[in-house]
User: Which sequence fits this backbone?
C-alpha cells in the first residue's frame, strides 16, 4: 500500500507540474499578445520618454503635449482655431511640442487598420520627410463629414501627400505598407497611462488645459494659458 501511495503522489506531482507549465506558457502568450510590439517601426523625431510622441524642439522648455485623433471633429475645430499660434511657437523655438496621434475612432478592419490609423500612419510618414505640420493641416482640411466614411484610404493619403510636395516612393511605400501602424498602439498605451480619454487633450508642462474655462475653444484664452507657461 505504501508503494501505491508513493506512486500516486508521484503521478499527482507530475500532473500538477504539467498544469502549472501549461498555465505559465498560456500566460506568456497572453502577455505577448497584449504587449505593444517592441520591434515596431518608429517614425523619425519620436521621444520614448514622451510616449513615443512626435517631437518638435526636443531640447526646449516648457512642453506642450497635444493628443488628437485626425477623425475627431472637435480636434479639427481646435486645429482651425489654434494651429497658427502653435506653429509660431514651434518656428520661434518657444516650446517643445509633442504630437500624440490617437486612433480611438472606428473599428479595425480585417487588415488591422481603421481610418484613424491610416491617417496617423500617414502623418508619421510625413514626419520622416519633414512635412508633418503640412500633413497635419491638410488632413483636417479634408476630414470627412462623417467618421469612418471610407474616404480615408491609403490611396487618398498619398494624394494628400502629393498636394504638399510628398511625391517620393519612400513616402508612398510608408503609407501603403502601413509602416507605423504598430507605433500607433504605443501612443494609445501611453494615453491610457496618462488617463487621456478624449480628444483633443492638451497639456502644458504636465497640466491639462481647462476645457470648461474655454481654453480649448477661445483662441485668446488658449494663447493666455500657453503664454503663462511658454512665452518668456
Assistant:
Amino acid at each position: 500500500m505504501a508503494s501505491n501511495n508513493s506512486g500516486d503522489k508521484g503521478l499527482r506531482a507530475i500532473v500538477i507540474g504539467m498544469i502549472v507549465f501549461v498555465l505559465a506558457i498560456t500566460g506568456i502568450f497572453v502577455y505577448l499578445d497584449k504587449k505593444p510590439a517592441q520591434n515596431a517601426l518608429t517614425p523619425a523625431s519620436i521621444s520614448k520618454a514622451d510616449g513615443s510622441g512626435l517631437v518638435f524642439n526636443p531640447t526646449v522648455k516648457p512642453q506642450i503635449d497635444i493628443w488628437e485623433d485626425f477623425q475627431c471633429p472637435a480636434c479639427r475645430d481646435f486645429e482651425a482655431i489654434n494651429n497658427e499660434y502653435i506653429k509660431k511657437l514651434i518656428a520661434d523655438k518657444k516650446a517643445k511640442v509633442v504630437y500624440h496621434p490617437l486612433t480611438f475612432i472606428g473599428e479595425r478592419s480585417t487588415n488591422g487598420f481603421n481610418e484613424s490609423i491610416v491617417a496617423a500612419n500617414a502623418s508619421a510618414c510625413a514626419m520622416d520627410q519633414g512635412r508633418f505640420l503640412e500633413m497635419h493641416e491638410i488632413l483636417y482640411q479634408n476630414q470627412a463629414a462623417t467618421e469612418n466614411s471610407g474616404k480615408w484610404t491609403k490611396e487618398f493619403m498619398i494624394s494628400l501627400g502629393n498636394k504638399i510636395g510628398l511625391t517620393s516612393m519612400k513616402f508612398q511605400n510608408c503609407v501603403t505598407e502601413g509602416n507605423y501602424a504598430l507605433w500607433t498602439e504605443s501612443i494609445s498605451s501611453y494615453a491610457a497611462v496618462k488617463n487621456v480619454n478624449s480628444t483633443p487633450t492638451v497639456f502644458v508642462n504636465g497640466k491639462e488645459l481647462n476645457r470648461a474655462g474655454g481654453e480649448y475653444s477661445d483662441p485668446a484664452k488658449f494663447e493666455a494659458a500657453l503664454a503663462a507657461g511658454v512665452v518668456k
Observations:
- Residues 2-34 form the longest helix (33 residues).
